[in-house]
Design goal:
This protein has helices at residues 2-6, 21-34, 38-53, 56-69, 75-95, 101-111, 199-212, 235-252, 284-308, 352-366, 385-397, 488-496, 507-519, 521-531, 543-552, 580-587, 591-603, 609-621, and strands spanning 9-11, 17-20, 145-150, 216-221, 257-259, 313-316, 322-326, 369-373, 402-407, 414-419, 430-436, 448-454, 461-469, 482-487. By secondary structure, the protein is α/β, with parallel strands linked by helices. The strands form 3 sheets. A 6-stranded mixed beta sheet has the order 5-4-3-12-13-14. Strands 6-7-8-9-11-10 form a 6-stranded mixed beta sheet. The chain has a two-stranded antiparallel ribbon with strand order 1-2. Bound molecules: 2-acetamido-2-deoxy-beta-D-glucopyranose (NAG) (5 copies).
């Protein structure tokens, strides 16, 4: 029976012989071998679509077996990743047409083999024209108020003190079932470079926030609660993690927290289906939990809005002419594989852009200023060029109202500038700036949070101070101490020059800082060290400097320099597409990193006839072929 199944033929209900499963597998393996550029990636999609049409299980099992046989990662990581994400990939593969724009985007996101196609032109509709005489927000030189920003906490509730911090998986410090031999590097009580945050480290940060930010009016939290054991995180675990973090914040933080939803705050990771996606696996549970958990801070109306607007909501901060607009950026995220299930990808999935416009118009009408908070920065390679372009149209229309954008996701201390004239990127045209908060999780540098000084009349950022705890300090595992790492105003102000006390850290200021970086390598290297808060620093010289400065000048992702290089086979750590830390830290072994690893192993000749035969044997044993 097994044997008969193995070499049986797929028969359609009309009686036509469609294909043999063994032939299909051969076709997939040879197409994978040939996949070196955008065109050959499109060819690869032909057998992948056929496989997807056989069903989610066949799709997941085939890739699990390929992954395990080629040792792209540990067996449980291969199985868990494709078990969870395989059905999402298969769903999209079944829907889009070969050679379509969507297929090109899929090749970009899954394999890094295509560039993003040209932008789909779309003019964002606005209810009103920009006012001829916009309200002038002028600093009166009053003392600033404080706001705390923290992000990417990635709290691992299964972190186990004494377990091995030296392991082969994306995160360690857990009692993994496949661990063998003695523990070589016991996990300390407060965290490790190879692990996500233990709850005690998160508590220590929340205490430090209360200490240094004791006068803060509120905090912003830009998402990613859940630890990055993405191959294991199912819905029950995701629910428990989100609820536990909400309780932990509520127990510690003395002022309101305005949160945003991150790409890890669901299951499978990154997967937020559109409202009209035909699936039973929706992400409404995420919105329900956050709506209930955040109601105490954002109020009943915003909580209801969050629940009904796919995680986005807005709050006018009590007593201030400031509206905080929290958006769910995951509908613009190429790694959200639900988005590819149509040839006509909507310009505004789930209406997030329209929601922003409504809120910004309301702010303008009320004479308020607005902050946008979200997880994935609008200018990263992680944001589709299309939606980032439309986002920029909104920024340009409401630039007088928007006093700041605040994001996380990259785990790094960064900024991104927008310009009224993208062909003339100078201080005079710089008109908006996003500040990106580094992470709590120690896996990408020293744990950190930011404290802003905010002008109470303009709601612009007067200073951004970064606080860290040093994980290599001998006292760290006894009791982490938090300290001021640097103040942007004190440190960069003199380099830029001409900053008077009433001047904010404006878009022009940040642009001039990029000019300093071009001219002064010492200053640039200081910034580069601070990117990871002095821990796990990646050197950046030569063209890396140009790319970095280019990215600093790109709150619109089409202007960023993070481009895939079709045809280059890349190892995990050398992807030209996502800088190392971005994709390893944020995806923690998602499908993209497995596919990158697959392509590089194939390029190294590791998918020869013997391996192909082994894959076929395993699949036939599992009564699949
Ligand atoms: C795959 O998922 C199913 C439920 O969706 C579960 O029963 C099964 O144990 C999972 N298999 C692996 C290898 O994770
Ligand atoms: C980490 O574990 C591997 C395999 O168990 C071992 O070979 C290596 O020496 C360990 N590294 C350290 C720093 O202990
Ligand atoms: C952290 O502590 C180590 C060891 O004391 C020291 O070498 C390093 O410079 C410190 N890092 C920072 C950013 O202060
Ligand atoms: C370059 O930057 C360094 C580090 O911030 C600073 O000490 C130095 O004065 C700068 N050099 C010039 C010429 O501005
Ligand atoms: C970096 O950019 C400058 C001009 O902006 C250019 O002169 C230089 O050749 C570039 N360097 C690299 C390594 O690309």
């Amino acid at each position: 029976m097994k044997f008969a199944l193995s070499f049986g033929l797929g028969i359609s209900f009309l009686g036509f012989v469609l294909f043999s499963k063994a032939d299909l597998l051969d076709d997939i393996l040879s197409s994978l071998r040939n996949a070196v550029d955008c065109e050959s990636c499109h060819s690869l999609l032909i057998p992948l679509k056929t496989l997807a049409n056989q069903g989610d299980n066949d799709f997941s099992e085939t890739f699990t077996t390929i992954c395990q046989t080629l040792k792209l990662d540990d067996n449980d990581v291969c199985a868990g990743t494709f078990n969870l994400t395989g059905p999402v990939l298969a769903h999209s593969l079944r829907q889009f047409t070969l050679q379509s724009n969507t297929a090109t985007k899929f090749c970009y996101a899954a394999f890094g083999l295509c560039s993003q196609p040209p932008i789909t032109l779309f003019k964002v509709p606005f209810p009103k024209r920009a006012p001829v005489n916009p309200k002038n927000f002028v600093s009166q030189g009053k003392p600033p108020f404080q706001v705390v920003h923290f992000s990417d906490v990635h709290v691992d509730r299964q972190y186990t003190v004494g377990s091995d911090a030296n392991c082969t998986k994306g995160i360690c410090c857990r009692n993994f079932a496949d661990h063998v031999g003695p523990v070589t590097e016991p996990a300390g009580p407060f965290g490790n470079l190879h692990c996500d945050s233990p709850p005690d480290l998160a508590d220590s940060m929340l205490d430090a926030i209360n200490q240094f930010g004791s006068h803060a009016k509120f905090s912003i939290f830009t998402g990613d609660v859940v630890e990055r054991a993405t191959w294991l995180v199912d819905k029950p675990e995701g629910e428990a993690d989100l609820a536990a973090w909400n309780s932990q914040m509520a127990a510690k933080v003395g002022s309101p927290v305005y949160g945003a939803i991150g790409n890890h705050d669901t299951s499978p990771v990154n997967a937020f289906p559109r409202t009209d996606t035909q699936t039973t696996l929706n992400a409404q549970w995420v919105f329900n939990i956050q709506s209930a958990g955040w109601r105490q801070w954002i109020g009943a109306a915003a909580a209801t809005e969050l629940d009904h607007t796919s995680g986005s909501y807005a709050v006018v901060v009590p007593g201030l002419d400031l509206r905080v607009i929290s958006i769910n950026t995951q509908y613009w995220y190429p790694q959200n594989f639900w988005l590819y299930d149509t040839d006509n990808m909507p310009v505004d999935p789930n209406g997030i852009l329209a929601f922003m416009v409504r809120q910004l118009q309301a702010s303008e009408d009320a004479g308020q200023r607005a902050w946008i908070i979200g997880h994935i920065p609008a200018g990263k390679a992680d944001a589709f060029h299309d939606q980032s372009n439309y986002y920029d149209q909104i920024v340009q229309r409401y630039k007088n109202t928007i006093a700041g954008h605040f994001f996380g996701h990259s785990h790094k201390d960064q900024f991104e500038i927008a310009y009224s004239d993208w062909n003339n990127q100078v201080a005079e045209t710089a008109d908006s700036v996003a500040l990106i908060c580094p992470a709590l999780t120690p896996s990408s540098g020293n744990p950190s949070f930011k404290l802003y000084d905010i002008d109470p009349d303009t709601f612009e950022v007067m200073d951004a101070k970064v606080f860290i705890t040093n994980i290599t300090d001998p006292q760290f595992q006894i009791k982490p101490t938090w300290e001021l790492y640097y103040s942007a105003r004190e440190s960069y102000g003199p380099l830029v020059g001409n900053l008077s006390p009433k001047d904010s850290l404006s878009p022009a200021f940040w642009h001039r800082l990029t000019e300093v970086f071009e001219a002064n390598d010492t200053a640039f290297q200081l910034w580069n060290t601070r990117l990871s808060r002095g821990g796990d620093v990646s050197p950046c010289t030569g063209s890396c400097i140009n790319t970095t400065i280019c990215d600093q000048r790109a709150l619109r992702s089409q202007n960023s320099c993070d481009m895939p290089s079709p045809g280059i086979s890349f190892r995990r750590s050398e992807s030209p597409f996502f800088p190392k830390a971005d994709h390893v830290d944020c995806e923690g072994g998602g499908v993209y990193s497995l596919f990158s690893s697959l392509l590089s192993k194939i390029a190294a000749g590791e998918l020869g006839p013997d391996t192909a035969a082994l894959i076929r044997r395993i699949l036939s044993r599992e009564e699949y072929l």
